[in-house]
TrEMBL record:
SUPFAM superfamilies associated with the record: SET domain (SSF82199)
PANTHER family membership: ACTIN-HISTIDINE N-METHYLTRANSFERASE (PTHR13271:SF47), UNCHARACTERIZED PUTATIVE METHYLTRANSFERASE (PTHR13271)
An individual GO BP term: methylation
Database matches in InterPro entries: SET_dom_sf, SETD3, SETD3_SET, SETD3_SETD6_MTase
Lineage: superkingdom: Eukaryota
EC number: 2.1.1.85
Organism: Latimeria chalumnae (Coelacanth)
Name this protein carries in UniProt: protein-histidine N-methyltransferase
GO molecular function, one term: protein-lysine N-methyltransferase activity
Gene label: SETD3
CDD domains linked: SET_SETD3
Keyword set, alphabetical order: Methyltransferase, S-adenosyl-L-methionine, Transferase
Coiled coil: none
Amino acid sequence: MTLITELLQKCSSPAPAPGKEWEEYLQIRGLVEKIRKKQRGLSIVFDGKREDYFPELMKWAAENGASTEGFEVVEFPEEGFGLKATRDIKAEELFLWIPRKLLMTVESAKNSVLGLLPDRILQAMGNIALAFHLLCERANPSSFWMPYIKTLPTEYDTPLYFEEEEVQYLQSTQAIHDIFSQYKNTARQYAYFYKFIQPLSAVLKSHVIYDLVYF
């Protein structure tokens, strides 16, 4: 908890003086990496690759009223996984539909254990509510959404996942200030909600892991 408190204090401090942003970024990143190291091995890991679970996902979707014909899930060389048509699709033809009950939404989060949490920030920030909703369901082997959760990627190609050296290359670009701000805000949100959740939710307290909350 000491590292979390230190991280929250660091991320809640005023913006650094001009020219000091990189120094602050390294300090915050150092704390985050220490936390990630301590949490290594705590997250639930699914066997195999995410694509191994695509058949289960499609079966689950079909059983719950989604369309699953006329296309298939394939991996494209540059774009990654996506849908590929297996037949001709006419202009304006409705070929894909997903019932709302299959979606993980702010509404479904509020109807879960999260709806009982007395925190106004959690209630007001939909992205945070969804992140913790996903954590709760991911920790539940019998979750209705488990066939979907198993197919989610484990990382994304965004600055939040860049190595320190990659961020350093961007220091002379206009994007660097947004990267610093995003990293600091993400770390602050995590530290705040980690401290908030710990005494309240037995389901969440052992699964509020940095890599899972912001994957």
